[in-house]
Each structure stands twice: as structure tokens, then as C-alpha cells.
Specification:
209 residues, alpha/beta, six-stranded mixed sheet
Length: 209
């Protein structure tokens, strides 16, 4: 059976630089009836486990290490035996939340993870966070963009560990060259497509946010 994508929205908080905000996060499950991976284990391990059912959780994949994207990851891993995967450039952010327990595996640019016969290619897309990554699943026609690209523009770069020129270059070089029909499944909010976002690159740069 081919891999399919399932979607949960979980609610909690995001804290950085002394502030805390209420947020809703997208949690993505990719797999079949036997096995799956979770992309961004946010807020609610119980809800994610319920959605997984009896399937084997092969990995917890982190697009980046802001606390709202990883706050359910250790609980999910401990209850399933799955390994937590994070790009090493985001270890400084990870340690803000979990100073004594590093993730289990490093993600590297170009790495291919296979789940239920479907390849997920890791694209290192720094800017929102130093170790931010996207996961491209060409067979499914999607890219899981975390907080790198949203409907309407790049992810936020106003806080520590982020940089606007860097995120723009990441989007330009790593995402906008994907097929225009590629669906962008984001870390928060509604999906978009590469084709819908690509024409607006110069507007984003002009806005400089």
C-alpha cells in the first residue's frame, strides 16, 4: 500500500527570547497501515499516538528545534522506541528546551529517508532557524516546509538564531526550483503550492521582513 499523509492540528505555546505565544501547529504523519514517521511532534503526544494507532513509528522528524515543534518529541519517542532526528545546526535551540537529552540522529542535507516505500529527501533550509530543514516527497508531490515557507511568504526571522537574507536564499535555491505544482505542507496554517509562492519572491525581499 502506498504511503499517505495524515494531518493533525495541536495547540500549545511557543517560547523564545523571553516571550511566550499561543500557537496551533500542524503535525504530519506519513506512512501506510504498517509504519509511519511523524514530522514535527508538537504539543500533544497522546493525540499523535491515537492517530498512529497500531502502526510502528519509525522516526520523529524535526523540521527545526523551536520548542513548539519538539515539545512532544521525547514523550513520543520514549513510548514508541522511535528515534528523534534533527539537523545538528539546531542543537543550540534544542538545548534551550532539553539541555540534558540530545536528539538521537542527525539529519543531513540530501539525506533520503524511506517510509512505506516513499522517499523523503532532506533539504537544509536555514534562516528561520540555523538547522531548519524541509522534507521533499516527490512521489507524493509535496514538500513539508516547517516554518521556512508559508502561504504568503517566508517564516518569521525576528528572533534569535534567525536571519531574513538567509531564509530568502534558502527558499530561492532549495524550494522554488521544485515543480510548481508541489504542495507546500507548512508548520502552521494552510497549505500552498510552489507555483503560488514563486512569483512573490521579489515582493518578500522588498518587504524585508
Amino acid at each position: 500500500m502506498a504511503a499517505r499523509i495524515e494531518h493533525l492540528v495541536t495547540s500549545g505555546t511557543f517560547s523564545l527570547d523571553g516571550g511566550t505565544w499561543e500557537v496551533d501547529n500542524n503535525v504530519w504523519i506519513v506512512g501506510d497501515d504498517e509504519e509511519a514517521v511523524v514530522i514535527d511532534a508538537a504539543h500533544d503526544a497522546d493525540a499523535i499516538l491515537a492517530a498512529l494507532g497500531e502502526r510502528r513509528l519509525r522516526a520523529v522528524l524535526c523540521t527545526h528545534a523551536h520548542d513548539d515543534h519538539i515539545d512532544a518529541a521525547p514523550a513520543l519517542a520514549s513510548r514508541t522506541g522511535a528515534m528523534i532526528h534533527l539537523h545538528p545546526d539546531d542543537l543550540p535551540l534544542w538545548k534551550l528546551t532539553y539541555p540534558g537529552s540530545p536528539p538521537d540522529r542527525e539529519l543531513t542535507d540530501g539525506q533520503v529517508l524511506t517510509i512505506a516505500g516513499t522517499d523523503l529527501t532532506v533539504l537544509h533550509t536555514p534562516g528561520h532557524a540555523p538547522g531548519a530543514v524541509c522534507f521533499h516527497a516527490p512521489d507524493l508531490g509535496v514538500v513539508f516546509s516547517g516554518d521556512t515557507l508559508f502561504k504568503g511568504g517566508p517564516g518569521a526571522t525576528g528572533r534569535s538564531f534567525s536571519d531574513f537574507p538567509t531564509i530568502v536564499e534558502s527558499i530561492r535555491k532549495r524550494l522554488l526550483n521544485l515543480p510548481p505544482q508541489t504542495k507546500v505542507l507548512t508548520g502552521h496554517g494552510d497549505p500552498t503550492t510552489i507555483g503560488d509562492e514563486a512569483p512573490h519572491l521579489e515582493e518578500w525581499i522588498a518587504r524585508g521582513h
